[in-house]
Hints:
Distance between the termini: 36 Å
Oligomer: single chain
Number of domains: 3
Helix content: 25-40%
Number of strands: 22
Amino acid sequence: MFGLFSSVEKQMRANATNWLELSDKIFNYRRDELSTADRTDLQQKSEQLRALLRDKADASKLKLGIEALEPAVRRAGGKFYPRSTVQEYVEFFVVAAIVILGLRAYFVQPFKIPTNSMWPTYYGMTGEVFPTPADEPGAIARAARFAAFGATRRSVDAPVEGDVWIPVGGNRGGIISASQVKGRTWLVFPSQVQQITLRVGEEFVSFTVPLDFKFDHVAQDVFFAGSTDFAATITEKIRERQSVLGEVPSGVNNQHTEGRWINTGRHVKKGERVLSFDVMTGDQLFVDRVSYHFVRPKVGSGFVFRTGHIDGIGSDQYYIKRLVGVPGDHLEVRDSRLFSNGKPITGAAAFEKNAQRDGLYRGYANLWSLAEGMSVDVSKDGYFAMGDNSYDSSDSRYWGEVPRKDVVGRPLFIYYPFTKRWGPAH
Length: 426
């Protein structure tokens, strides 16, 4: 950068020095391969330019010396010179990849929020439903939504006329049954996805969504828009005998298990739109991997950790939760409030918002290890993690503490999608 302010004389001397270094490199590596004429010419032209440097020749003479050396370098260069554009691009991307991998490993790591356990502080994947085809964005709007929000469309049309049925009773972690099948990310990279199967009349129709996407919320909005409790609605349908027993898709590779088909009460004609929605990408943020090497995480911090040593999870992934307990803390939940060491917990805005049930924050749930009247003491080698969306979060209440050695870092900045949440992470 500072070379921009150097004199023409100084810049030309630096340029001449670079040419001589290249010439010496070619000579040392290829002297046995060069013809006598090429080797002699390269040495002579190099020595002439070197002499100009020693004599402190002006810029114009140095330029002539460089121009005389260049043809000799070109003839003798082999793989060192001339350099092709392809070589330069390959070298650039290799160096860039090394730099990015180094930054990711030791300083800053990108992280995507897959689920809504930290909602509404951070958003996982969500579904935006379009009630009618007229509500669906056009081609230009779809492209803009994909670029800004990572929105990808799913739509289903009725293959025949009939009632719409949905499968329940599966084991994919939601009320709607689904199968885990092979798919592709960005239409290129192999991955595992969920396959959702609906029934229209006696015909089946399927579509896929990401593995961590929770289709229950979409099903509730599409088929039971007035309902505030999807599970209660399904229970009521069963009680009213608006369901039938049968095999439903559940498990890996489209296996089936015994479950129920629920009649949604919606009747469609052949070709009519059954449902249409966009899968909106989860928040993507940068994680600081440096700070926690020097300071310990504080209660209230969002923190990212690995799960490989958590027996209750059983796989090695990256999770993000909020730190609610450090070694020695005594935790309990009372009346939707989280208490630490006998006092309402402090250290994050989400704590107070949950305590007040402010807006989208629903309070803390009395579940499992923090059930009403029960408490937890954090061990000397662990951290207790909970999601801000306590009613829909798998966290330390279920699978135990996070080992101190597996803490990765703290969230820094939400860089995508471009919503009102874009900016510093909290």
